[in-house]
């Protein structure tokens, strides 16, 4: 039995968008899962395990991204990645 493709959407909320540090955190989290994970933004679809591909998306604050995962742990992967995005990659914890 093959695992179904799961999808979710999230809005980038951290001030700097999907920059190097945020992309590195995203790749690290995505690599914890065995599912095949892709991110879509600005009309492009890239592998979530590639920091260079994620950076090339140039997703800024307020941009909606689409995350797709296919595999045994797809739902857990989407939940974890979505929570990370919703939390601003831990960058919005500081008060300004």
| CATH homologous superfamily designation | HPr-like
How many structural domains? Answer: 1
How big a fraction of the residues is strand?
A: 25-35%
Helix and strand composition category? alpha+beta
Report the count of strand segments.
4
Spatial strand sequence of the major β-sheet? 1-4-2-3
Can you write the helix and strand succession as a string?
EHEEHEH
Number of helices: 3
**What's the CATH architecture name?**
2-Layer Sandwich
Largest sheet: 4 strands, antiparallel
Low-confidence stretches: none
Helix proportion: 25-40%
Our Rg estimate from Cα atoms comes to: 13 Å
What is the general shape?
globular
Overall pLDDT metric = 93
CATH topology: Histidine-containing Protein, Chain: A
What oligomeric state do the depicted chains represent? single chain
What is the distance, rounded to the nearest whole angstrom, between the alpha carbons of the first and last residues? Answer: 50 Å
CATH first level: Alpha Beta
């Amino acid at each position: 039995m093959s695992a179904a493709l799961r999808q979710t959407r999230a809005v980038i909320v951290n001030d700097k968008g999907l920059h190097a540090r945020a992309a590195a955190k995203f790749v690290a989290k995505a690599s914890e899962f065995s599912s095949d994970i892709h991110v879509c933004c600005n009309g492009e679809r890239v592998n979530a395990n590639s920091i260079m591909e994620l950076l090339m998306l140039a997703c800024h604050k307020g941009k909606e991204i689409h995350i797709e995962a296919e595999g045994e742990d797809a739902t857990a992967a989407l939940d974890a990645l979505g929570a990370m995005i919703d939390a601003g990659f831990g960058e919005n914890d500081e008060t300004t």
